[in-house]
Amino acid sequence: MADTRRSQQPHRGRWSRRLGRVGRQFTRWLRHSLVPSDGFVFVLLLGMVTACGLLPAVDGSWFPVTTLVIPIVIGGLLLRMSSLLLLYGACAGVLVAQERTRDPNHVTPGGVVVIALVAFMVLFVARYRTRLGLQGTRGESMLFDLRDRLRAHGLVPELPPQWETDVVLRPAGGQAFSGDFVVATRGRRGGRTLEIALVDVSGKGLDAGTRALLLSGAFGGLLGSLPARGFLPAANEYLIRQGWDEGFATAVHIAVDLETGDYELLSAGHPPGAHWVAGTGTWDIREAEGPLLGIIPGAEFDGVRGVLGPGDALLLFTDGMVEVPGQDIAVGIDRLLGEADRLIADDFKDGARRIVDTAGANLADDRAVVLIRRH
């Protein structure tokens, strides 16, 4: 999957968001409007089954009995369960008719076994689709919509010209869903405060994707609605109420005053952040204390404060960037900051993507990087 990047550049950020919104709306309309009715599809497939019963009389070598697999597969994708079973009955009738009226060698036991196996597999898949009460491929369309909404939650609001953010999410194995997600808002104090939360849900890829989808909506509602120090406690209580067997998560929450550069970083069992201090030319590790989300009721989270001056940058990342089994996390952080040092000469241009590409420690885990820069 392509990188999920969000660079806040004043001259193109507004238009890129508008074009992206129009594109997503058109894609959703196209997916839903092109799904034909169940009755129309059934009649069409019934005609195909009839043709499969007649065409072998023309040339059995070009139209074998296994041609019936085609309407069976299409029916499994588009028909409801009741219509699909009726289609199976029509296919069985065609097989019986061919056995009695055609060359006995035409309907072979092997061909019948192939058709039966395909029909069983299609029925198995259609059964799960029917449990959702969805027709055709709308289940897949819903997943696409949910993925788009998850990405939309990670959009950083438009910032003043002297500020820039870069966000990259890289799911494990190139999958479409990630256990890492970002939520951002610029709501409190008249839009003066930027808040960003980078969350890493337990698990990876598709295993964590469903929980990430739910949590991104809930955390997006909490972010900006509460004081900065109230976000992680509220998120912790929300996770505990879910009662999931594997429901913990780590998170880092940053609140930045866009006028003064003052920030507060709070963490819930998450790797530390790194502050590039332009005046000294060094990286300052910013590590806050706090337990994992979803484990301890009433947990408290202590933050660290700092100031982002002109030329400074703040780097946030998930454990997939720095953790390697059997290796201390400090080694991974040193490697990541070493790669980040190479970005300084280019003024951190395209920094988040380049860091993920070169410093990602665990390719089997979801990886995410957030870079906040003050010019």
Might you state the CATH topology name of the largest domain?
Phosphatase 2c, domain 1
The helix/strand class is alpha+beta
CATH superfamily of the largest domain: PPM-type phosphatase domain
Average predicted confidence as pLDDT: 80
Helix content: 40-55%
Q: What is the domain total for the residues?
A: 2
Q: Proportion of β residues?
A: 15-25%
List the helices and strands and how they pair.
Blueprint (H helix, E strand, L loop, with lengths): L3 E2 L7 H21 L4 H17 L14 H10 L2 H21 L7 H23 L6 H16 L9 E8 L9 E6 L2 H4 L1 E9 L3 H18 L8 H12 L6 E9 L4 E7 L4 E5 L4 E5 L17 E4 L5 E5 L11 H13 L9 H9 L7 E8 L1
Antiparallel strand pairs: 1-2, 2-11, 3-4, 4-5, 5-6, 6-9, 7-8, 7-10, 10-11
Helix pairs in contact: 1-6, 2-3, 2-4, 3-4, 3-5, 4-5, 6-8, 8-9, 10-11
What does this structure look like?
By secondary structure, the protein is an alpha+beta fold. The chain has two domains: 4-27 and 142-374, PPM-type phosphatase domain (Phosphatase 2c, domain 1), CATH 3.60.40.10; 38-136. The chain has eleven helices and eleven strands. It has helices at residues 13-33, 38-54, 69-78, 81-101, 109-131, 138-153, 188-191, 205-222, 231-242, 329-341, 351-359; strands spanning 4-5, 163-170, 180-185, 193-201, 249-257, 262-268, 273-277, 282-286, 304-307, 313-317, 367-374. A six-stranded antiparallel β-sheet has the order 1-2-11-10-7-8, with helices on one face. Strands 3-4-5-6-9 form a five-stranded antiparallel β-sheet. Helix 3 (69-78) packs antiparallel against helix 4 (81-101), helix 4 (81-101) packs antiparallel against helix 5 and helix 8 packs across helix 9 (231-242). Pfam families: SpoIIE.
